[in-house]
Amino acid sequence: MTTVPQRRRPCLRWCSPLAAVAALVLLASIGSPVPLAPVVSTASAETQTLALRAEVEALLDAGADVAPSRVDLEAFQLLGVSWARGPAGGQVRARTAEGWDEWIELDFEDRATPGSNEDANPRMVSEPIWVGRADGYELDLPSGVDDVEVHLVRPGGNAPSQPVVLAASSSTQDAPPITSRSSWGARAPKATPGVATQLKMGFVHHTVSANDYAPADVPAMLRGIQAYHMDANGWDDIGYNFLVDRAGQIWEGRSGGIDRNVVGAHVAGFNTGSVGVAVIGDHRTVAPTSASVGAVAQVLGWRLGLAGIDPTASTTMTGLDGKAVSLRTISGHRDAASTECPGQQLYDELGLIRSGAADKAATVEPLPQS
Fold this sequence. Notes:
disordered N terminus; Lysozyme-like; 6 helices; six-stranded antiparallel beta sheet
C-alpha cells in the first residue's frame, strides 16, 4: 500500500466504529451516543455503516481535532468512506495486530452509468480498501465535508472448498480458465444486468487493495468488494466483469454470462460496450506480477476476439458530454476518467497486455455481434 506523509492542517479525525463515541466523551457539550445506520447482512458479507452526529461534524468543521484512541473489538476486513457534500481527498489507516498501518490516500471515482438505477446514490463514495484483519481505523479528511459515513465490511460465509472453473461451450471453448462466482461465494445481484449489443473495448483497473494477500484470501476479498459496491455504492452487483489475482487466476465478476456484453460499473459514461478487468492489488508504486499481467491479456484477448476486435487498435466511444472520444481498444481507467487507476505500475504494462491479448485474439473464432 502507498505510504502517505501526514499533513499539518485542520482535519476531521476519529477512530473505529466506537471511537466517535469516545469523541463525544471528550467533548463535554455532547453526551449522547453516535447513531448507527441499519446493518445490511447477507449470507456472503455484512456491511456496517456508521454516521457522525451533526453536532460532532459542526465542531470538526470549525477546526476541532478529535483523535480518540479507542478501537473496535469486532474485526473488519475492508473499509471505505462517503459524504454528502465536500471535496474529494483525505486518507485512512487501519489498526491490525501489528499496529497502525501506513496512511492510504482515498480515491474517488463515479463509475456507474449516468441515468441508470445504479447512478441513484448522490453521495461521494471512496474506493474500498482491503485491510486484512483490522480492529480500528483513523480518518484524515479535508475540511468542508458534510454528512460523513464510514463503511466497514466483514466478509462472512464460506466459498466452496473446490473452486469451479466454468465449463466450455460453443462460445467459451477458447476462453482461459475462469473461476465462477459460486467459487467465491457471490451473492445474487439486485437486478438483471444490462447487456450491450456490441463490445468495442476493454478497461484495465486495480482494486487498491493489499498486494501481499494469500490465494486463500481472494474469495473473501471478492465478497468484500461486492458487498461494498452493492451496499455503499448502491450498485446492483460487483462493478467489474472480471478480476485477476496476483497468482494469475481469473475470477468471474458481474453476473450475466462471461461471453455476453454485460454492462458493468467501472468507468462512468463508458460502461456500455466495454469490459472491465480489475487486478486485485494496489499498483500505484508496486509492480503487478507477471502472472497477473498475463492473465489480463488472456481474458481481454478472448473477449475482444469474440467480438472481432483488434486489441492493439483504437476505437471511438461516446463520452459523458455526448462527444466522440478516441480510445485504445485496451485502455486504462485513467484514459477515460480523472483517476490514478489502474496505478502507474500496471498502466506501464498495457503495451505488454495489448500484445499478449492480440496473440490470444488470433486464436478465437469471432461471434456475430447483435
